[in-house]
């Protein structure tokens, strides 16, 4: 799914580099290659590629990453796949996902 870009500057992803120990786990679990390691610290290189799935924050043992997951388009797409219905995150009045 690399290459997907969502609305610019709306992602809730935050990284506190002071808490990062450079373990690289976020670079392994992120499906959109949002992170890279620079100077032994995680760095957000593609913020707008984040779909707010929450995998990075869940797997960061130092709590350096926060993201508001389980809402928006990522959740809508996943729920649609699970239920076999059209993806929807209630982000538009038409009922279809943006
Ligand atoms: S998972 Fe957390 S501690 Fe590990 S590199 Fe990423 S931000 Fe740093
Ligand atoms: S929330 Fe998901 S897509 Fe966004 S940076 Fe974390 S792992 Fe990557």
**Relative strand content:** 5-15%
Order of helices and strands: EHEEHEH
Q: What does the overall shape look like?
A: elongated
Radius of gyration, in Å, reads: 14 Å
What strand line-up does the widest sheet have? 1-4
Summarize, please:
With 98 residues, the chain is of the alpha+beta class.
Feature tags:
two-stranded antiparallel ribbon, 22% helix, 3 helices, 98 residues, disordered C terminus, Alpha-Beta Plaits, alpha+beta, two-stranded antiparallel sheet, elongated, binds iron/sulfur cluster
How is this structure best described in words?
With 98 residues, the protein is an alpha+beta fold. The chain has one domain: Alpha-Beta Plaits. The chain contains 3 helices and 4 strands; from the N terminus they run βαββαβα. Strands 1-4 form a two-stranded antiparallel sheet. Strands 2-3 form a two-stranded antiparallel ribbon. 20% of the residues are buried. Bound molecules: iron/sulfur cluster (2 copies). One iron/sulfur cluster binds next to α2.
């Amino acid at each position: 799914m690399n290459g997907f870009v969502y609305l610019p500057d709306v992602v809730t992803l935050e990284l506190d580099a002071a808490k990062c120990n450079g373990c690289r786990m976020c670079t392994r679990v992120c499906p959109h290659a949002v992170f890279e390691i620079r100077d032994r610290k995680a760095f957000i290189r593609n913020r707008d590629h984040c779909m707010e799935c929450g995998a990075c924050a869940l797997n960061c043992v130092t709590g350096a990453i926060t993201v508001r997951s389980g809402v928006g388009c990522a959740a809508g797409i996943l729920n649609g796949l699970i239920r076999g219905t059209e993806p929807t995150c209630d982000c538009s009045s038409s009922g279809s996902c943006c």
